[in-house]
Every structure is written in structure tokens, then in C-alpha cells.
Amino acid sequence: MNASVSKESLDARDRPARLTVGVVGAGRVGPALAASLRLAGHRPVAVSGVSDASVRRAAALLPDVPLVTPGEVLARAELVLLTVPDDALPGLVEGLAETGAVRPGQLLVHTSGRYGTRVLDPALRAGALPLALHPAMTFTGSSVDVQRLEGCSFGVTAPEELRLAAEALVIEMGGEPEWIAEESRPLYHAALALGANHLVTLVAQSMELLRKAGVGAPDRMLGPLLGAALDNALRSGDAALTGPVARGDAGTVSAHIHELRAHAPQTVAGYLAMARATADRALDHGLLKPELAEDLLGVLSDSNAVNGTNGTHGPDESGPGEKR
Fold this sequence. Notes:
Elements: H1 3-14, E1 20-24, H2 30-39, E2 43-48, H3 52-61, H4 70-76, E3 79-82, H5 89-98, E4 107-110, H6 121-125, E5 129-135, H7 144-148, E6 153-157, H8 163-172, E7 176-179, H9 185-212, H10 218-236, H11 244-247, H12 250-263, H13 268-284, H14 290-300, H15 302-306
Parallel strand pairs: 1-2, 1-3, 3-4, 4-5, 6-7
Antiparallel strand pairs: 5-6
Helix pairs in contact: 12-14, 13-14
InterPro entries: 6-PGluconate_DH-like_C_sf (IPR008927), DUF2520 (IPR018931), NAD(P)-bd_dom_sf (IPR036291), OxRdtase/DH_put_Rossmann_dom (IPR019665), TM1727-like_C_sf (IPR037108)
Protein name: Rossmann-like and DUF2520 domain-containing protein
């Protein structure tokens, strides 16, 4: 970073931190963050959004804040939140820089988990102060998101001279800063997607299967179970593993695959992948006995389970390890 930008960074850090705030991209994240900054005393002054849903979110979370073009957002705001999809972010930053919309000393914050501050280099060359602040939270696009930011961890990447400014903004939004190195951002984001996004898919599939099994309130049945499983996993890691895979109950797993193929074939591949991963972790941590693992892994093998030979029978058919 050049000397002039370093000086501007220090000036931005030391000045009274009541800022005018703009949002480029009124998706689920931007309006919630701006509303949270408003509670901390900052002043949202402009927001951009195209879709009807974006307009409604902006009106609900940022009432009386004018809806303008992205260029006008940058013209009005000292702190600009770039809250657009990951794939759109590089082009947006380049376009804003090329059109002269970026002003020296302007705090430019993106909320992508994938990128660090390098994606903001075109704006940095125009004199902007780059921050990457990614809230590790799922957003609904409603006012509940502002409440959920309390205690939420943020993946933060920033130049060293902007470290205090980044921490201050996160804390003002009720969050906890967690520093992520530039080169670690993709891995960090993959970890969150694996844990959160895939969890939603698994829960939705589980609820569908319970309905097919005749359960009237699958959400009520799953709530205590999943809450306990999550709490145990966060406290104990792999030691919290339970269930037929960790126990080596090959016959039960075989019956599961048979039923899934019959009633929800689209779930078989995911079940097999997660069961294999669970078996590997259970073996590594001494939870799955090696003498039981062979039959279990046979049931889970691609050539058998996917093609419908070994491992696809029900409880009244051939046993594990035998062909039908």
C-alpha cells in the first residue's frame, strides 16, 4: 500500500466514527448490516437495488433511505457496503473504479466470504480504503437478521493499518472479528458452506422423508434431536458421533439404502457420501471397530450400493456382503 493511502487510512481510523453509509446491492445482507450500523449511530444515506424483492427489503429495513444508482451511492456515502453475489463482485469493483465513482479516503467494504481485500485492488488504486467483512450468518432478508448479528463472528481481512477500523465496525454491528489471511479466504468460505449450506439441504431432506414415513410434525421431531446433535458436535467434535454408521451396523445401513432408493432415490448419493465420511472419521477416532468396518464399507461401496446389488436389500432379503 502506498504512503498516501496509508496516511488516509490513519485519518479514517482516527476521525469521529459516525459515518454516512451506502449499500450497493440490497439483497438479504446489505440492508441488515446498514440497519445494524444505524443502531450504532451511523447514518444510512443511499441504497441501490434492482429487483422488486430488493426494493421491499430496503424499504422495510432502511425506511426513508433513497434508492439510487450504485454510482450515486458512492457519491453520497463515506462507508460503502458492496453486498452483491461473489461472482458479480470483481466486475462491480472494476466498473466503479473505471467510471471514477470511487473517492479517495472512502471506506469500501465487501461482505463476500470467498474474497479478501485483493478483489478491491482497482478501488484501492483509486484511493479507497479496502475491508473484507464477512458475517458468518445465514440471512432471511427480514428484521430478525439484525438481532442475529449480536455475537455473530465476522471473517475479517484488511490491511494492517485498517485493522482497528475493521474491528470497530464489526463490534458496532454486534459481531466478533475473526481474522482470516487473504490466501485462506476460499478455504474459510468452503468450511462455512459445508457446515451451514449443506446442513439446510440435509435437514430439508430429512423432513421430507419423515413426512413420507407418516410423521405429522417433522420439524417438532427433529428440533430437539438436531439441537442436541449440534451442541454435542460443537462441544466434543468426532466424539459426538452416534448412529448405525459409527456403530458398524451394516444391516441397518443396508436397509436405509434400500428404503431411500425406493422412496427418495435423489437422496441416495448424498447418504452414501456422508456415510462414508462418517465411517472414515469414526474409524480414525476409534469409534468404529475395524472388524465391523469391512461389511459396512462393502455396503457403502460405489459398485454395489449405487448399482443396486450388495447393500440394496431390505431387512428381509440377503444379508450384508451377499449378492441378491
